[in-house]
Specification:
2-enoyl-CoA Hydratase, Chain A, domain 1
């Protein structure tokens, strides 16, 4: 337990992924990050899982990296996870193809911000405190913050925090597009689970296709995504879930999707 762990729990179609090193403010070790990669891979791989929820045990989401444990890797230029493993930062493929919802609280520093920006929906407790403080340690963020904070907040708003390492609160995170909802402290996980449950109720293949198309538009441009619309829609239209969606509409009932 000195190096911490990542705990997982299945709840029907959801995979809860918990950060478990509260005695060290959930600071990440290399072993924890590799375990997080494995949890994302399980979410991606198992057909019955439709959405992931990342949360933390204890009072804080994460204080970031356990820097002394990562410094030797940085100095040698080594990747934390091996090539071919699922990257929770969404920087090096392969990536998890299913949606991930984050519930953050307390301190959410450096790595925590970068992980949540690589996810799809973030629910923050109102007492969450954020900071991208690598600049104060003589290094720079390499988990995607330099890209995604600019994408979400615009150049000046991103540089305001990237170049100072200053702290910002949950409502600022929401204003800048980093968090989608702010809850009372202690309610963030329940709200994240509610959102994830709503996602899991939808047609899984359509959810994954919609997610992939939006990501493609962001990463390679709208034209590339638009060029695939007809092909993807034709494929989805031939699925059993699409047929169930039509039947549910005509019968005025809730659809029951199976991912086929």
């Amino acid at each position: 337990m000195t190096d911490g762990r990542i705990v997982t729990e299945r709840r029907e179609h959801l995979l809860l992924i918990g950060i478990d090193r509260p005695a060290k403010l959930n600071s990440f070790t290399p072993d924890m990050f590799r375990a997080l990669s494995e949890a994302y891979a399980a979410l991606d791989r198992e057909p019955d899982l439709r959405c992931g929820v990342v949360h933390a045990l204890g009072k804080h989401f994460t204080s970031g990296l356990d820097l002394p444990k990562f410094t030797p890797l940085f100095e040698r230029g080594e990747r934390v996870i091996p090539k071919g493993a699922v990257d929770p930062f969404r920087l090096n493929p392969p990536f998890c193809r299913k949606p991930v919802v984050f519930a953050v609280k307390g301190w959410c520093l450096t790595l925590g911000i970068e992980l949540m920006l690589a996810a799809d929906i973030v629910v923050a407790a109102s007492d969450t405190r954020f900071a991208q403080i690598e600049i104060k340690r003589g290094i720079m963020p390499t988990g995607g913050a330099l890209i995604r904070m600019v994408e979400r907040a615009g150049w000046g708003n991103a540089m305001r925090y990237l170049l100072t390492g200053d702290e910002f609160d949950a409502h600022t995170a929401q204003r800048l597009g980093f968090a989608q909802e702010v809850t009372l402290p202690g309610a963030e996980l329940d709200r994240a689970l509610a959102i994830a449950t709503r996602i899991a109720e939808q047609a899984p293949l359509a959810v994954q296709a919609s997610l992939a198309s939006s990501r493609l538009a962001v990463e390679r441009g709208p034209e590339v995504a638009i060029a695939e619309y007809e092909t993807v829609q034709q494929r989805l239209s031939k699925t059993k879930d699409a047929a169930e969606g039509v039947r549910a509409f005509t019968e005025r009932r809730k659809a029951r999707f199976h991912g086929r």
